[in-house]
Amino acid sequence: MTEEFKKGDRVEWETSNGKTVGEIKKKLTQPTDIKSHHVAASEENPQYLVESEKTGKEAAHKPASLEKSEES
């Protein structure tokens, strides 16, 4: 089962440059556009808007690609 996250949770995910840490900004449950990228989120297939601590940029991620961060 995929983990549920809430606003403010610190999470990490893999990028081409290694592991990145960020903060959950909100759960996306409807299709939306972030900059020029279309996010096909729905109630059945939610995604999370995450802000990277390193770059400050926001991006949508599927729950399966995220895990709670162990870093403090």
Automatic annotation (TrEMBL):
Superkingdom, natural source: Bacteria
Basic and acidic residues bias: start-end ranges: 1-13, 51-72
Start and end residues of each stretch annotated as Disordered: 1-72
The record, for Pfam families, names: Hva1_TUDOR
User: Where does the secretion signal sit in this chain?
Assistant: none
All copies of the Hypervirulence associated protein TUDOR domain together span: 8-66
Quote the protein name from its UniProt record: DUF2945 domain-containing protein
